Amino acid sequence: MNYALLFLSPIFIVALLYILYPMIAAPSIGSPSSMSSVFECGIDTLGVARAPFSLKFVYLTIMFIIFDLEITIIILIPLMSNYYELLISGLMVLILTVGLLLEWKYKNLSWVN
């Protein structure tokens, strides 16, 4: 018997069960009109559900992720063993620092316009 088939058949059976079980055990949804209304945390909304969102929060999140990466690189510099790794990490930190200066220059870091 093929060992790959013996190994993969339980995986396929479990995957099939994961697909079919919700279709069999799930309750019926009801009318489609009830699905079109907004429902959050059990409370009906009073106003418009689609309020405008400031892009400053998105910029802040992206900058947090980028500088979290930069801090990780800076922490790992003592563990780097050769010149090539130091050069690449230094170049990356330099590029991120230039990006920060450009964000500062174009006033994307200020919360008040």
Automatic annotation (TrEMBL):
Enzyme class: translocase
Keyword check for Transcription: no
EC number(s) recorded for this UniProt protein: 7.1.1.2
GO MF, one annotated term: NADH dehydrogenase (ubiquinone) activity
Keywords: Electron transport, Membrane, Mitochondrion, NAD, Respiratory chain, Translocase, Transmembrane, Transmembrane helix, Transport, Ubiquinone
Keyword Membrane in annotation: yes
Subcellular location as annotated: Membrane; Mitochondrion membrane
Highest taxon listed in the record's lineage: Eukaryota
Any one Gene Ontology cellular component term annotated for this protein: NADH dehydrogenase complex
Annotated InterPro entries: NADH_UbQ/plastoQ_OxRdtase_su3, NDAH_ubi_oxred_su3_sf
Transmembrane segments: 6-26, 57-77, 83-102
Coiled coil: none
Catalytic activity: a ubiquinone + NADH + 5 H(+)(in) = a ubiquinol + NAD(+) + 4 H(+)(out)
Family statement drawn from the similarity comment of this UniProt entry: Belongs to the complex I subunit 3 family.
Function: Core subunit of the mitochondrial membrane respiratory chain NADH dehydrogenase (Complex I) which catalyzes electron transfer from NADH through the respiratory chain, using ubiquinone as an electron acceptor. Essential for the catalytic activity of complex I.
PANTHER family assigned to the protein according to its UniProt record, in alphabetical order: NADH-UBIQUINONE OXIDOREDUCTASE CHAIN 3 (PTHR11058:SF9)
Name recorded for this polypeptide: NADH-ubiquinone oxidoreductase chain 3
